Amino acid sequence: MPGIIYTPAHADHKPESELHGSRRELGPHPDNPERVKRILDAVKELSWAEIREFGERDLSRNFFQVHASGLIDYFRDLQNSFDRGELDPFVADLVAHRAAGSFSNRTAPRTVRGLTGWYCTDAQTPLTAGTWGAVCAAFASAVQAAELVRDGTHSVTYALCRPPGHHAGRDFFGGYCYLNNAAGAASVLARSGPVAILDIDYHHGNGTQQIFYGSKRVFTASLHADPEHAYPFYSGYTDERGTGAGRRKNLNLPLPSRVTGEEYLKSLDKALGAIKRFRPKALVLSFGADIAEGDPIGDLGLTAEDVYSVGQAISKLNLPTVICQEGGYNLETIGEIALSFLRAFDRE
Ligand code: Q9C
Ligand code: ZN
Q1: Mutation test of ligand 1: which of 231, 235, 329 has the most ligand atoms closer than 8 Å to its C-beta?
Q2: What is the pLDDT of residue 202?
Q3: Which member of 10, 67, 154, 167 is catalytic?
């Protein structure tokens, strides 16, 4: 029976606003706690799914398998500063740029403010007093989802992660993501054999790609909006194929705007073919409901029915599977889209 891993701790991360550059104004931040509430309400309908909550756990070992110690230390110092009342919610006001090194060989600054610019890749990923707690809970839910699959308790688990994770790399974060939940899950499973990560969020999973770029044990494939016109702009192109031992272990499939369900399934087939040839023992899925029509920051045209077909095609791989929630920002449809996707994994 599939299992759903959920924790209410996500609600402590509640970024208020985002700068909408083109409209020259602050608007509501797309990643709000209501997203998870809507998904949870919808997926409760799945008679075959068991919803598990969990408490706190020590994640240190899991953190360091996918993230640099400097990034984790920074987040912990940041939390201490919030706890001491030294900080109000903020975003990076400067991100480390190539030019930063042009005056000296200066490396990371020491203050929490300076380090935010060092590690964060954009000014859309707010830091608040409740952020780190929620981030740890999301990461823990992905790790737990992977352990339940590894131990054979469930053949499919769904970690209702919030904040999302796929834009967080080994030593950077951004794109509403802080730690890479899917990478945490994959590293648990990779101890028992080769693992494939398939990322079908609307945006390219630049963090996931970077973490496993040199790895031959973890194959990464991503379908996403063409980075020529979509975030994260600097990665997600077809010529990024992996490096060293990880050569040809990364596959990017950029999609045109308003792609139809049929076209999408053709690209998906290419990803699934490559995954089969890799012969993984387990699959980690980064699922973003922002591929559906009507997403406020996405421009693909997938219907709920298309999303079900996408789920079915993936489910047919018949691999032990951990599904991590990534993006998806239309509150009116996010529940229905997640439900359509998960229905396809009712395969026992
Ligand atoms: N005003 C994920 O879906 N910027 N992250 C979009 C919208 C960043 C999305 C601009 C989008 C990141 C996990
Ligand atoms: Zn996304």
Answers
A1: 231
A2: 98
A3: 167
Whether the per-residue pLDDT at 12 is higher than 90: the answer is yes
Query: Which ligand gives the minimal distance to the CA of 291?
Result: 2
What confidence score (pLDDT) does residue 265 get? Answer: 98
Contact by Cβ (8 Å): 284, 184:
no
pTM over 0.90: yes
**Quick check: is 97 catalytic?**
no
Ligand 2: distance of its center to the CA of 338 in Å? 14
pLDDT at 317 over 70: yes
Phi-psi region of 175 (alpha: psi -120 to 50; beta: other; left: phi over 0): left
Instruction: Write the CB contacts of 290 (distance below 8 Å, at least 6 apart in sequence).
Output: 201, 202, 203, 297, 298, 326, 327, 328, 329, 330
Question: How would residue 21 be classed by pLDDT, with cut points 50, 70 and 90?
Answer: low
**DSSP-derived secondary structure letter, 256:** -
**Residue for token pair 């509640």:** 14
DSSP 9-33: GGGG----EEEEGGGTEEEE-S--T
Are residues 190 and 278 in contact, defined by beta-carbon separation less than 8 angstroms?
Answer: no
